[in-house]
Amino acid sequence: MTGAAFDGRLHDGASAAAHAVRVIASPDGLTIDQDGAASTVPYAELHLLDVDAQSLRLGRRGAPEFRLILPAAAREALKAQAPHLARVGHGGRMLALVGGLIAASAVLAAAVFWGAPLAAEPLARHTPAAAEAAIGDNVAAQISLAMRPCPASTAEPAVRATQALVDRLAAANGVEGPVEVTFVRTAAPNAIALPGRRIFVTAGLLDTVESGAEYAAVLAHEMAHVAARDGLVALYRHAGLGLMLEVITGGSGVAQQLVLLSGQLTELRFTRAQEQRADDRALATLAQLGHDPGALGRALARLKAETQGDEKDTRFDVPEWIESHPDIDARIKAAQAKARPGAAPTLSEDAWATIRAACDGKAQ
Ligand SMILES: [Zn+2]
User: Fold this and answer.
1) Which pTM was predicted?
2) Architecture of domain 5-85 in CATH?
3) What is the whole-number distance in angstroms between the Cα of residue 305 and the centre of ligand 1?
4) 198-248: per-residue pLDDT in tens?
């Protein structure tokens, strides 16, 4: 066994007490030794919850009760093995959003009495657009560290080629203000709606869908998330009550908390209800614009085929298209039922060719 070792405390949810554990930063995960029984948790399953001068607290995907507390010294070792667990920094400009969010203080009562998940939607609704934009900038900057933008020489023409479609979808969804599409080199097929009216589209998605109509159907789904501010809701839900209180009261830790969220991006998933709503809205929007809603079913079927058995490192991918969708077959069927063969093309062949070349074969 190699790697730095630390004494930590583990709350596993099975009992109320914390257990003393020995933790080793192994190459592929944290090996946790409790009374001689060791198991390794892959780094990709862990995220940073909190950090202060003495300690850092880690959470584990799919295990809401899991809390691992390590001494602050562990951060040095984690920096090399799993930077998302060690990231620290400051986001001075984020403090600027606090003033605007005080307007949302009425929601504080909801947060306290109902708990964070239930308050996430009302809080998102009450978050001023400027604050959401600031949060979106921060999240996009964090994601860009792992999802690198495609080369400007091909991405910029692609953004221009997609803009008319994006504007139509935005208008049909009542989204005010421009929506920004960013093409990133990530090979895993994905599209992500972030707070602040941003949509990230991966090179892998452009390689997976086979027509402008399928691409447009994916964008229509993402636009529905943008309209519902689902990215912000997901952030609030996963950041928990602590962030809400900080944001609302202007606590000094806001900037750091937001930066730390980058470690939780793997948790940034939408609920099944959010997905259902986005699908329904996408199908309605495509029909309203005279396009073929069945294209969403075809896109989903290709994404399903492409990602099954995928062993890629998805640490920074928000697997919103597949993993959070156990009911994908039902979604495919629902879209197929609305198919309208012979509907008007969504994008010209030229526009689609330009979009498809956004990453110049630079998927990684
Ligand atoms: Zn979705």
Assistant:
1) 0.64
2) Roll (2.30)
3) 17
4) 999 999 999 999 999 999 999 999 999 999 998 888 777 766 555 555 554
